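Supplementary Methods, section 5.1.

A reviewer requested that the exact input to the structure prediction be made available. We therefore reproduce it here, unchanged from the version used in the analyses.
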Amino acid sequence: MSMLNVFHVAGSALHAQSTRLNATASNLANADSVTSSNGQPYKAKQVVFAATPMGSPAAQGVQVKQVVESAAPMRMVYDPKSPAANGEGYVTMPNVNVVEEMTNMISASRAYQTNAEVMGTAKTLMEKTLTIGQ
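The structure derived from this sequence is encoded cell-by-cell as follows.
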C-alpha cells in the first residue's frame, strides 16, 4: 500500500468518526426533549458505515453510508401533569439510551484519536525517509 493511501484511509475514518460523534452529541442533547422541530418526540440517530476501496485492493477506507433513525421503541414516562401526556398520563420520550450514547462517544473519540495518530506517524515516517539522503 502506498504511503499516500494511508492518509486517504485514515482521513476517511476521521470523517466517519466525526459524523458519528455529531450524531451522538445530537442524541445526548435531545435525550430529554419532549418534542423535536417537527412536533414529534426526537428519534435517536445512528450512523451506518460502509467499506470503500481507497486506491489499491489492500486499502479499504470507510464512508458514511447513511444516518438513520433508531428503530428502538420510544420511552414512556408517567407524568400526568405534563401538557404532552396522553389520556393515561404517559409522555412519549425519545428513544435515546444515555449509557449507550456515552459508550458510542468514547468509542468514536478513541477511534478518531487513533486515526489522527496514524496520520501523524505516517507524516513523520515520510519526513524521515526524505532525510535519509542528506
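The longest strand covers residues 56-69. These observations are discussed further in the main text.
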